[in-house]
Amino acid sequence: MKKILALTIAVVLTFAMFTGCTSNTSTSGKDGKVIKIGIFEPASGQNAGGGKQEVLGMRYANTVTPTVTINGETYKIELVEVDNQSDTSKAKTAAQKLVSENVSVVLGSYGSGVSIAAGSIFKDAKIPAIGASCTNPQVTLGNEYYFRVCFLDPFQGTVMANFAKEKGCKKAAVLTQAGDDYSAGLGNYFAEAFEKAGGKVVKADFQGGETDFSAIVSNFLKENVDVIFAPSSIETAPLIIKQARTAGIKCPIMGGDTWENETIIKNSGDAAKDIYLSTFFDENDTSNAAAANFVKGFKDFLKADPKNLTNNGGTEGVAAVSALGYDAYMVAVEAIKAANSVKGEDICKAISKVNYNGVTGNITFDSNGDANKSMAYIKTIENGAFKFLRTQSVQK
């Protein structure tokens, strides 16, 4: 009897071991077949505001396209969300949770640092990830399982440097967060392009969580700079803007894509004057029919649930990262259909061949997994709202 019991336990343990290692990422239940898409985004920490807006775009996309057909069968698309807490030290744990949930593909993250930190986790698990707004080149470099639908920081930094030079700026202050891949990277790309165009650059950095910038901006005032470029988090940007204006700095203050968030306007108050930023999308751009349809549907989605409006910063404005989140989801769906499979390896191969007309423009990928994009939107803040100024490209 003991031998039979021991044999039975051994068989059960062996079966459990192999089923735990299976690469089949679909499930069957009372609602039929299910394929899981992981959402790897910050719901807390300094990038929570942008992360929530990016997730809203993904959730809305899921309401538009809630199913996908694989091998003639309809699969319900289930979103599995994890909070990477805007923290590179916690990003790997969040990524591993998605792997344990047997997702077929991952979307995210807002914040290049956490995307870079999690990249090896997804690569080792052979689960493709599609970033929406993570712009640092290191996100996809050397990782065939990471893609993105946005432009990159070398391009964005050059766009803003050229814009500053065209406004007549000759001496720029570049203020970045030490150790932050996005802030430090974008700041350096701006500085390189600005100096290449004949300008002079004064650099300074600060630590994460720092709130007092009075000494830094006072030095900028002494240096007589005529533009400040400060790519930073949503939480930090208003502090820099207000303290710079309080110190008597009247020159333009510029940032990158993270600055397109309504809370920056609210928290900067009257100091938000002569502010400029680069971003990926403008809701008033009527040149793309897909974009127009998205804007209408997304606004209805926001108004249908008070929680959605809260996560969007309390307004009906359509953030560029929401549009990118939508596109990232739709690219994933296109790849799943093309792969005709739930396996990450198959989907990864299909992503590289996707040609999708998204709301942020046509999306194809280069050999590094980066979207082939060459245009940015320049916006300012006017009368308490973001205002589109122009599009800007970089000649290659």
From TrEMBL:
Q: Which CDD domains match?
A: PBP1_ABC_LivK_ligand_binding-like
- Name the InterPro entries for this protein: Leu-bd, Peripla_BP_I
Instruction: Print the keywords alphabetically.
Output: Signal
Signal peptide range? 1-22
Family, as annotated: Belongs to the leucine-binding protein family.
Domain Leucine-binding protein residue range list: 35-377
Full protein name = Amino acid ABC transporter substrate-binding protein
Please name the source species.
Fervidicella metallireducens AeB
